[in-house]
Amino acid sequence: MAGHAMNKDVALAALPLLALLAACNMGAGGNGSSADSAQGELVGARIGAPFTLTNQDGKPTRWDDFKGQYRLVYFGYTYCPDVCPVDLQRIMQAFAKFEKAKPALAAKVQPMLISVDPDRDTPAILKTYVAAFHPRLIGLTGTKEQIAKVAKDFVVIYNPEKAGPEKSGGTTDYLVSHSRTPYLFDGDGKPVALVPVDDPGTPDVDEGSPDMVLAFLEKWIK
Asked: Is 189 helix (H, G, I), strand (E, B) or coil?
């Protein structure tokens, strides 16, 4: 699996879709049909739940802290070699353009990265990482148990490989396979649509370009 991120369709197929995602109509490569529908393809799906995690400043952060704000939620990890940084760069480039063009609407959006690698993604590691993409992007981590529960509630699958030998600095070498499902939630914390990401199966089409993500934000952020 390219970039050690599971294709959305493969990942979600492993879950009880009829119960969890009854209202979804998802396309390939992590993109839904939101461009052609009157409402987001995730409207009515049971995705998301209240949580308390730790942000990049080491402070408790709750899902309900963002009540009234749209939430751009990306699950990944800082040691991801390719997919996560590319997706985040494109999403946050689009967000920066949206922020410049429509600052009042952008102020209603909170982007966040939730780590699926809590052993290595300490608040200090996350702080440096998220700052490289956008000053508004926050990073969230927690205990293994906390992350496992959040991943389950948000219909995310992840699987750390067996850790290799410890290196200097106390880190170990391993990858984390995870489903690639960036979500947009509304101000009530309800799922709206999947944020566009590129489909490696269609090399001639760039579904996750910053322009595509910008169009997505302009469509759904009200």
From this structure: coil
Question: Alpha-carbon distance 218 to 70, whole Å?
Answer: 13
Task: Provide CB contacts within 8 A for 123, sequence distance 6+.
Answer: 54, 55, 56, 57, 58, 139, 141
Q: What is the pLDDT of residues 66-79, one digit of tens each?
A: 999 999 999 999 99
DSSP letter for 142, please. -
Q: Contact 98/220 with Cβ under 8 angstroms?
A: no
Using pLDDT thresholds of 50, 70 and 90, give the confidence band for residue 193: very high
Q: How far apart are CA 155 and CA 33, in angstroms?
A: 19
Q: Whole-angstrom Cα distance, residue 173 to residue 71?
A: 31
Q: Provide the pLDDT for residue 200.
A: 84
Q: Which residues, in sequence order, are CB contacts of 196 under 8 Å at separation 6+?
A: 30, 31, 207, 208, 212, 213, 216
Q: Quick one: CA torsion of 217, 28, 139, 68, rounded to 10 degrees? A: 40
**Number of helical (H) and strand (E) elements in the chain, helices listed first:** 7, 10
16, containing H or E segment: none
Q: Express the helix, strand and coil content of the chain in percent, nearest 5 each.
A: 35, 20, 45
- Residue pair 95/109 in contact (Cβ under 8 Å)? The answer is yes
For the chain, give the longest Cα–Cα distance: 53
pTM greater than 0.90: no
| Assigned token pair, 168 | 């200097």
| Helix H or strand E segment including 121 | none
